Amino acid sequence: MGPWRCLLPLLLAAALRAQQQQFMEYVERRLTLLEERISQWHDQSSRYSTELRDFKNQVLGMLEAAEKEREAMRTEAESAAVRVDRLEREVDYLEMQNPAPPCVEVDETLMEKQVATAKQRKNEKYTKLTDCSDTIASIRSMKILKRFGSTSGLWTKDAAGNSEKIYVFDGTANDTVYVFPRMREFTLFSATRKAARIKLPYPWVGTGHLVYNGHLYYIRQQGPFQVIKFNLANKTVVDSSVFPAEEQIPVFGLSPFTYIEVAADEEGLWAIYATKEDEKNICLAKLDPTSLDIEQMWDTPCPRENAEGAFVVCGALHVVYNTRLPSRSRVQCVFDVSGTLAPEDASLVYFPKRYGSHSGMKYSPQERQIYAWDDGYQIIYRMEMKKKLEV
What are the residue boundaries of the Olfactomedin-like domain, all occurrences included (predicted)? Predict the structure, then answer.
């Protein structure tokens, strides 16, 4: 046992040294691997830094180029705006150079004869010109297009033609009509730069104008209430006529700026007005669109008080009412000149609540919809129709 006791410590020491040597080799391998990874990370970091610097320089170059292009486009836009403004001034100047059409002299004898004939036929039953037997059932839908111009005004299409042009009358006293080529241009562009301008020989009053078969019918602002028939193609006055009604007053209690509302329906041209003689109710007259003669006149049971607008559908006058503090508009009085629609059978249509009250409402017989101006907003009401019930 003696020799083994001496040999055992030697064996243990040799085994310990072998374990230490293996541990040191393992540590050295791990350190070497770590150094390689650190070196690889350093190389990648340097490469990414170089790429990021190159990308930054590239972006700066692109931003500088974009800034130069933006500046160039801004300069071109300003130049184009200057040219457009110059062109508009030149167009206005050319329109101003057109000689004003001569005033149409009013034949007093002829007017008295016309008034006498109209009064003789007053309140007679109307002989229909068409087979139109529809009346309004309800408002099918409402579309708000945009907000343009003053709180009061009128916008419309040609009530008798197929033109897509939009005519805009901004305000209740003006002499310039804006004409947009289509609904798209009127809807998309807020400025009037896309619109042609027609300067009228006499300023208008109110919002009772009408575009019918290529002509504009409007009420002259100064002097007696004169209906002007204006050719929109050659921009000349075709005819004019002093409206044969004495002591006229505003036709709508809530629209004091409108004295005569010229309207169109399937039957032709109408005039909605009021006089001192019967100041409580609204009057209606059938007009000859060619000569502006009054063919027939009616006293209606529709009151002026709280009325804000009116239109004619198939020979039936529809009066729209509201309140002094604008609320929900509604058709509350219907007067059918042919007697084929009983008052109790007429639908008392309510318009959707919007902004204020209507200053202009134009019925389109072809489209069966109303172009309305409500507190500066341009709105389209599409109508649901039904057949009249014979009385």
Answer: 131-387
